[in-house]
């Protein structure tokens, strides 16, 4: 009876230990499914089609860009990412001084992790969001052949990117990314879109 009691006690302890290990593993899995990161890089601008100022086409200047991202992993292959970014750029090629333009974006992206390893996590991302342009002052120019006062606007934006994350530690991830962004009607009343290219680096914290 004593032997049986010892066996039963040992088996019970083994079951409890296995349950504890399983719960701990689940906790670790849940912990790694969330990530918040800060990024910085460049916004590479484009010509502002549909506008003529003193015989030339204005351009959205290349400038620094930065922001924060929050991601949640739903499976080994898919995650959702929310982000907000900003670039204090300028409109150039004007008849006078450049005009400052603050550009803020807010996005929701689906992220496909296509070839994960123990350290590297390459991915592609695609999504949509909203952008707010803030011109320091209106621009006078020709739109469709007519003299017009051009001002800022807010409208939807689409984006697609490719990148990779490197797990420096269990919690810290380094990230490289290149993203193309489409802005619909960035300025008013200009009925033209604009595209930018955004290479960035980021540092993330997984929890």
Write up this protein.
By secondary structure, the protein is mainly beta. It folds into 2 domains: 1-31; 34-206, Porin. The chain has one helix spanning 2-31; strands at 34-43, 51-52, 59-60, 63-73, 78-92, 99-113, 120-135, 139-143, 146-152, 154-167, 172-183, 187-188, 194-206. The strands form 2 sheets. An 8-stranded antiparallel β-barrel has the order 1-4-5-6-7-10-11-13. Strand 5 and strand 6 form a beta hairpin. The longest helix is centred in the N-terminal third of the chain and has 30 residues, at 2-31. The radius of gyration is 25 Å and the shape is elongated. Residues 1-11 and 13-31 have low confidence and may be disordered.
């Amino acid at each position: 009876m004593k032997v049986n009691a010892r066996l039963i006690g040992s088996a019970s302890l083994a079951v409890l230990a296995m349950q504890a290990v399983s719960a701990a593993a689940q906790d670790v899995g849940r912990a790694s499914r969330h990530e918040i990161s800060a990024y910085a890089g460049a916004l590479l601008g484009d010509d502002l089609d549909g506008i003529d100022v003193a015989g030339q086409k204005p351009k959205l200047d290349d400038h620094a860009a930065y922001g924060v991202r929050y991601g949640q992993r739903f499976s080994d292959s898919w995650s959702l990412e929310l982000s907000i970014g900003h670039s204090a750029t300028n409109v150039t090629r004007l008849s006078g001084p450049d005009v400052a333009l603050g550009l803020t974006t807010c996005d929701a992206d689906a992220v496909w992790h296509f070839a994960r390893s123990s350290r590297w996590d390459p991915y592609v991302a695609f999504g949509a969001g909203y952008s707010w342009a803030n011109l320091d002052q209106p621009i006078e120019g020709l739109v469709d052949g007519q003299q017009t006062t051009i001002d800022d606007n807010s409208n939807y934006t689409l984006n697609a990117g490719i990148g990779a994350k490197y797990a420096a530690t269990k919690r810290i991830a380094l990230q490289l990314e290149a993203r193309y962004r489409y802005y619909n009607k960035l300025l008013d009343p200009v009925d033209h879109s604009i595209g930018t290219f955004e290479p960035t680096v980021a540092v993330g914290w997984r929890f």
